Amino acid sequence: MIKVTKKDRESGEKLLKRFSSHVKSRKLPMKMNLLRNWRQKPTKGKVRQAAISRERYRKIANKKRFIS
Q: In total, how many domains does the chain have?
């Protein structure tokens, strides 16, 4: 947790700038971006099932191409 307290005679803009520099120094935006875009690797079964369905769609498309 990042906590920034206002010093004497410090403007709000300066306080906000100091807070954002603390956030950047801890590399929080990069960590949040990685967490947001994280995806679990597909299992072996899902990869096989996807390949089977792709092959089925290719066969259907190939038949349609020669029929018309």
A: 2
Element (H, E) at 7: none
pLDDT along the chain (68 residues), means of 10: 88 94 89 88 95 96 85
Q: Which domain holds residue 62?
A: 41-68
With beta carbons less than 8 A apart as the criterion, state whether 54 and 33 touch. Answer: no
Contact partners, residue 23, CB within 8 Å, separation at least 6: 2, 29
Buried b (16+ CB within 10 A) or exposed e, 21-53: eeeeeeeeeeeeeeeeeeeeeeeeeeeeeeeee
* pTM for the full predicted model: 0.47
